[in-house]
Amino acid sequence: MASRLQDALADNAQIWGGWVVGPTVLGPEEFAAAGYDYVGFDVQHGYLSDADVALLLRRLEHVPIATVVRLPGVDAAPIGRVLDAGADGVVIAMVESAAQAAAAVAATRYAPGGVRSFGPLRAGLGIEPAALQARASVFAMVETARGLAAIDEICRVEGLTGIYVGPADLAISLGHGPTEAWTRPDVLNAMQHLQRTAAKAGLVTGIHANTGTIGNAMAQKGFQMITLASESQALRRGAAAHLAEATGQSVAPGQQRYC
């Protein structure tokens, strides 16, 4: 049984995502209503636990949007819990080696191929282990100079679905500020190298773009899975536009969220 995320990637050259950093029940549904393909839940930097995410995922069971969860490491327990709750995939932050990428994959697979413990929480997922692990996508988030140097080895890890680029940490790791991710040629070249290497290996290429304009530019560079904005960014932009309309003032640029 394919997941919504797998179906969306199979049907579209690019898929577009929103991001959720807090325990909101409205954000994911609004992203779905706006036509986004997927929503990401942030357990690394957001104000969410894997238990919070499980409740949000259950609410989305009948909402037509795919789901991914970003987790801070390769600990098998939280990875298994969000998959058991119905997440279509996981994004594992700060992957810097093939060994870390392999551990992430193992956390999504049952024995003998992995270390995931059996315990599906949603009846609609069924109970067949092979089907449950087949629908679980796993992305290695590459966002450091070490990860950049190891990208060839990371992309050779069997079972990995894709590479997801984190521009802000990548910029910091290369000696720049997070807001310079989109202006420094060495950072842009690094992102393109990650994309080309992953694509050549037959992997999905994803990136945190932060805005629609940057998202369009990343699509032109070949990225397939592009996160555009968090729910806080979308709320701030919409609120600012409404206030500007009411007061006759221009909309001031909103603060970006860099991930």
TrEMBL record:
Gene3D superfamilies: Phosphoenolpyruvate-binding domains. GO terms for cellular component: cytoplasm. Belongs to the HpcH/HpaI aldolase family. This is HpcH/HpaI aldolase. InterPro entries: Aldolase/citrate-lyase_domain, HpcH-HpaI_aldolase, Pyrv/PenolPyrv_kinase-like_dom, Pyrv_kinase-like_dom_sf. Pfam families: HpcH_HpaI. The keyword Oxidoreductase does not apply. One of its GO terms (molecular function) is metal ion binding. It comes from the Bacteria. Residues 29-235 form the HpcH/HpaI aldolase/citrate lyase domain.
